[in-house]
Amino acid sequence: VTSPRKVAIVGVGYSTVGRRTGLSLAQLSVQASAAALADAGLKGSDVDGIAVHCFPHQAIAATLVGDLIGAPDLGFYAGSFDGAAYSAAAMHGYAAVASGMSEVCLTLRPVLRDGANGLTAGFGDAPVPDRRQFQMPFGALTPVQFAGCYMRRHMERYGTTEEHFGAFAVGQREYAARNEEALIRDPLTLEDYLSARYISKPARLLDCDYPVDSASALIFTTEERARDLRQRPVLIESFASATTPDTDMYLVPEMTRTSPWDAARRMWAQTNLTVADVDVAGLYDGFTFIPLQWLEALGFCGEGESGPFVAEGQTRVSGRIPTNTDGGACNVGRRHGANFFIEVTRQLRGQGGCRQVPDAEVGVVTNSVGVFSACALLTAG
Amino acid sequence: MQPPDVLPIRPLEDIDSAPFWAALREHRLTAQHCAACGNLQYPPRPACRRCLSFALDQEPLSGRGTLVTYTVTVQSFHRYFDDKIPYVLGVVALPEQDDLRILTRVVDVQEGELHAGLGLTVDFEEVSPELTLPVFRAATIAEVSA
Fold first, then answer.
1. How far apart are CA B87 and CA B84, in angstroms?
2. Cα(A192)–Cα(A17) distance, integer angstroms
3. What is the nearest CA distance from B56 to chain A, expressed in angstroms?
């Protein structure tokens, strides 16, 4: 039995990003892929593996992406609409390179902005199928409603407050102000947060990520191949995914302790590094409660203690663990998980510009929460 | 009131879910019960997820429950709910089995009275001739001690 090959991230890139770009999924996908390939010093013809993650109602096939970028022959391809956002594509890309099925694997997350009614709008008056029939007739129509339930559960179980969630929003906005690629950069105070309108109490508008048209791409290859490419390699030290017994976000056994605990346990089991070694974090912020759950699951603070930890400023510029140094998806827009991998990669290369975490050598990235999630430990190669 | 052309959001009943929705039209809250191992499960599935037996029937539940968590939705995301906001979505633990929960609406409880552990009892909301939803309201003292 040969041991899995070490996987490196060698190229990262984004498409044009905005609220209404007028671009198609194909255009966004090719823009991001071309940017990541150029970053790595590779061509489309070098790609022999592609993994794409999409929403089911806005999908593009991995093999079509191969056609569009001029990949002559794919030894590996995977299209996914299931699982923990971009990390589902990363999981496929990681497995493809580690196993030897691909030498140069493009991982891609294109996403089109949905309207205010998002995922529910498409149904019109048609009856709703599958598991959604046990949610939507009751009025559970959009993810911010489960966010409200998760926040309330943490508040009732641990005494967490709305100000604690607000402190996270305020802290990562400081980083957004330093990031020219962030779409929202105005200073944010706790008072601003508390005066933002509720959508589904206690979840407010400023607890939500910012929906945009975007595509994000990362190129994975072997550690050996990475040495010959343009950028300082960033190595995937360990990578883990996890799920819960129920795939319904509302019916998980305990909302304050969901799949991130299992993903984190698996991730730490694959490495000799510990939480004390981590210099920078990219923690998925589809809603502000999610990074708080990850801070606990990864061990940056004790279970139930993430609220005070964040309120003390421990995730901010001079805190224990600088977190979401690009501003997070609340401010750079919904890249659906990929921006955490890209930003931490840039930090470990030393390309963080005026938001660079000094001497960053080890970073942790996470995607999603609840029924499925994933995390990875990245190191400067 | 909504204009008559505004339809509620209806379930697309399937081979697994039809018995659940049919029982609700008769004002019975049920869960799937496995004849082989006794497991109860909701939402409905093709087979028992504990033993993979396909011998499932619908078992009536007591209608009691305990609030686990909740959210007060103040924005409407479908025109049917335009005149129904704010409303309370709640996760309710059902006493018949440890892992048995239902996502539902909690009705007739003031926002300040909502908290984890609140004792609830089922009620049946006849949305249309085809659709009855199980919603939960606060249990009375008599119901809690019964």
1. 6
2. 26
3. 18
Q: What is the CA radius of gyration of chain A?
A: 19
Q: Whose structure tokens read 């659709």?
A: B131
Cα–Cα distance for residue pair B29/A199, rounded to 1 Å: 30
Model confidence over A215-239: pLDDT tens digits?
A: 999 999 999 999 999 999 999 999 9
B43 and A131: CB-CB below 8 Å?
yes
Q: Does position B3 have pLDDT exceeding 90, yes or no?
A: no
- Among the partner-chain residues B14, B87, B91, the one whose CB lies closest to the CB of A250 is B91
Strands (E), A81-180: 104-111
ipTM score of complex = 0.96
- Rounded CA gap, B10 and B133, in Å? 10
The overall pTM is greater than 0.90 = yes
User: Which residue on chain A is closest to B9 by alpha carbon?
Assistant: A137
Q: How many CB atoms sit inside 10 A of residue A21's CB?
A: 18
CA dist A315 and A300 (Å) reads 10
Tokens linked to B137: 């309201």
Edge-first strand order for the sheet with A76-80 is A76-80, A49-53, A104-111, A214-222, A7-14, A234-243, A372-380, A362-369, A280-282
Rg (CA), chain B: 16
Q: H or E element: which one contains A282?
A: strand A280-282
Query: Under a CB-based contact definition with an 8 Å cutoff, are residues A376 and A220 in contact?
Result: no
Contact A375, A260 (CB under 8 A): yes
Element holding A76 (H helix, E strand): strand A76-80
Nearest Cα to B87, choosing from B103, B71, B102, B101? B71
CA gap A166, A189 in Å, rounded: 9
From B141's Cα to the closest Cα of chain A, the distance in A is: 24
Give the model's pLDDT for residue B4.
64
Indicate the residue of B11, B71, B105 with minimum beta-carbon distance to A127. Answer: B11
CB contact burial A98-117 (16+ within 10 A = b; e otherwise): beebbbbbbbbbbbbbbeee
